[in-house]
Amino acid sequence: METDNGKGLILAVASSVFIGSSFILKKKGLKRAAANGTRAGYGGYTYLLEPLWWAGMITMIVGEAANFVAYIYAPAVLVTPLGALSIIISAILAHFLLKEKLKKMGVLGCVSCIVGSVVIVIHAPKEQTPDSVQEIWTLATQPAFLVYVAITMSIVLALILHFEPLCGQSNILVYIGICSLMGALTVMSIKAIGIAIKLTMEGVSQIGYPQTWLFLMVALTCVVTQLIYLNKALDTFNAAIVSPVYYVMFTTLTILASAIMFKDWSGQDAASVASELCGFITVLTGTMILHGTKEEEQQQQASSSGNADLILGSSESVRWYESRKSTNEEHLISLYSPEY
């Protein structure tokens, strides 16, 4: 494996370990805070006094930083799918530390993600790192990528202006589509910024080029839009459905955008490209299995709680419903909320 790809691989795996661990640390912190004060689901902020929650937050920041640097060294077709490893880490840690049982289908999902990731790593293409931000700008303004950006923005505008008022609250693909399309452009912009930072640190300053600042503005705009609509999706739909759909769409569009802009598959034979696609599909399948298992467990817990409350009476049933809602909100807050 090439040196740069090796660095990107190590950083991507480390990022998944840190991010997966951060979910568990923050959840344990939220549980401790709930025992000592108002729960986060009810608007409480006692978790801010919990060292475990802060440990999780710091761990997540380290993970995101490692992921950012990974894009500098390796192509998106290698780095992005490896994000599924964070799901495996959190599932395994939750099994041992939170006593959330990992069932046989969950184990199958983990194995699928690992096998798919190994296939992608073995056949990952070597990326040619641009020598300046102007070279990246040339790649970003090539006709093929400009057509991709034009199509992306047209779809985003159509989703925001037409489909969101019409069916945004009933069709999950509206919010997730906006998040995923903008997310792919976010990765391209962040990759450009990362390369500019790397070159500057090596002594070839890129700060004076207007393209550097333009990439930064595009990245900030895309990130803000992405977070707004991801929060809308999480507030409207079940997280067990949002997560796999978002992962599949975001990863697919990011790989497509990177292949067009950076020509990731240029020079690779058909067998290598087919192997990468098979590995990618295997990772997506494992991710869907893991989240399907989680959704099934949530439904079983809700069903058993509902049956118990039917015995206690209607007033108790109402209180159970409020409690279940707050639990879901706590879960969303601990996993997805950028504020935390």
- How would a crystallographer describe the biggest sheet? none
Number of strands: 0
- List the total number of helices: 12
Q: Report the C-alpha radius of gyration, rounded.
A: 21 Å
User: What structural class should be given to the helix and strand makeup?
Assistant: mainly alpha
Overall outline: globular
Overview features:
12 helices, 0% strand, mainly alpha, 340 residues
How is this structure best described in words?
The structure is a single chain. This protein has 340 residues and is an all-alpha fold. The chain is 80% helix and 0% strand. The protein has twelve helices and no strands. It has helices at residues 3-36, 51-73, 76-79, 85-97, 104-122, 133-140, 143-167, 172-201, 210-236, 239-261, 270-312, 314-335.
